[in-house]
UniProtKB/TrEMBL annotation:
It comes from Rosistilla carotiformis. It comes from the Bacteria. PROSITE patterns: PROKAR_LIPOPROTEIN. This is Carboxypeptidase regulatory-like domain-containing protein.
Length: 138
């Protein structure tokens, strides 16, 4: 039950973030992109991917990563990319407060900062370049 609550909150928060990131601008020039995301050779089961125009024009967009795959629409041109990957982890030694509140799990971000908040990942999106796969290493 707690695990479902944690996942529900995580999905809700990611959806709100993606909705806000996708607001503004026009989608008529957007290009459908998709791909796979792996960390240490394994698919990222749950996470997010964001595309931010490097030149400041165009729309920031993002998508959820599910079972190592994503699909979204992105403005053409060079994009900065941020990727997160999360796991739900059982608390081995919960505090008394966590026990009293029924908290037995926490969400853990396992993809290193060099791929998200400190990311230097870049891709060029064009009508002839619509598949972008990412094989992330520690």
């Amino acid at each position: 039950m707690v695990r479902r609550d944690v996942r529900h909150r995580l999905v809700w928060a990611a959806s709100v973030m993606l909705l806000v990131m996708g607001c503004g601008g026009t989608r008529s020039d957007q290009i459908a992109v998709s791909g796979q995301v792996q960390f240490e050779g394994k698919p990222v089961a749950e996470g997010t991917i964001s595309f931010m125009p490097v030149n400041g024009t165009g729309q920031t967009t993002g998508a959820q990563i599910v079972d190592g795959r994503y699909a979204t629409t992105v403005s053409p041109g060079e994009q900065a990319v941020q990727i997160t990957g999360t796991n739900v982890v059982t608390l081995e030694n919960p505090t008394e407060e966590e026990v009293s509140r029924g908290i037995t799990e926490r969400v853990e971000q396992y993809v290193p900062a060099k791929y998200n908040r400190q990311s230097e990942l870049r891709v060029t999106v064009a009508s002839d370049s619509t598949t972008h796969d990412f094989d992330l290493q520690p």
